[in-house]
Structure formats: C-alpha cells, structure tokens
User: Fold Phosphoglycerate mutase from Hoeflea olei.
Amino acid sequence: MLLYVIRHGQTDYNKEDRLQGARDIPLNDTGRAQATGNGRTLAGLESLELPLPEFDWVASPLGRTRETMELVRKAAGLEPRDYRTDQLLIELSFGDWEGHTLEEVAAHSPHLIEQREQGKWDFRPPGARAESYAMLAQRIDRFLETVTRPTICVAHGGVVRALFNRIGHVPGDEAAMIDIPQDRVLKIDGASIGWV
Assistant:
C-alpha cells in the first residue's frame, strides 16, 4: 500500500480549540495557505513513486477537506476538481459536543471529561451520532480495504490518528493523543508510516 495523507487546513474551530467533528466548517486563511503549501510539498517530492496524475485522489466529502484537496491539486499543477470523495473518511462525530471546547463541556459535565481522560480511544461522547476513536478506526479499516493503487488522500485529524493505530500499531489511547499537523504530508508505504 502506498498512501499519502494530508489533514485539512486550519479552520476557525481549530484555532479556537472547538470540537468540529462532522460539522461542515470552512477553512480560514491560514488553512488555505497550509493546503497550498502541502500541494507544493507533494509537487516537490523527488522520491515520488509515480507522476501525480497517476495517483488515485480521494477526500472526505466535508467542505474543509474538499477545499484543501482543491488547493493542494491547484498548487501541484493539477485540475483542482479531478478527485473523488469517500464517506468513510469523514471525521469522527463528537455528537452533542460539536461546536464546544472541552473547557465548555467540562463546565457542564466534568464526569464525562474524566471518563474521556481515562480511556480516550474507547470513549464515546453523548449524542445519537457520536463515535469513539475505536469506531472511527473500524471505518478506516473499511477504507483501507478499498486502497488498491497508490493514493493521495485528504482527511481529518481523527482519521490520521486511526491510521497511526492501524498501520503504525500505536496503542489506541496513545494514538488518540497524537498531535496531527495541518501543514505536513504523511506517507504510508506498506507497514511504514511517517511525515515527509
């Protein structure tokens, strides 16, 4: 498997440390610059295994990932909209917590924050659609089964954490705490995973 993964650029929710999850929050100016920079990084990789147009390009269908993908492709000299989306790549849902900071949640539900800190990977916030990282990782397993050729993917921080768990064998609670930059490109080559 050969997979390059980019986290979407910064949003105002990221800047404010708000849980955005499956909410459709647009990029801010910093995020647009990060996406453009990641496109230049890809275009400048001397060790790239194939010409960029020969990769399968896929993004989460949320607006921030689609905008990131289009800026990445434009900066790499490609037609911005020539890619596909996959629902399996949507960020995990934080349920009722979406739109709030953890500090705001703690003010109302400190016991839930305590539960989350004791086992972040398996913790599921309240709300009908809410997911745990473990649930997200099962979705990512299904996505990985579809990767049949070299692929460039734009997704979310939670998705990248799940990839570190699944490919890099980072234990769940540790993977859930990894800081995922928005201005770097992650390379997965077989069982190897790391930033380029």
Notes: The chain has a mean pLDDT of 97.
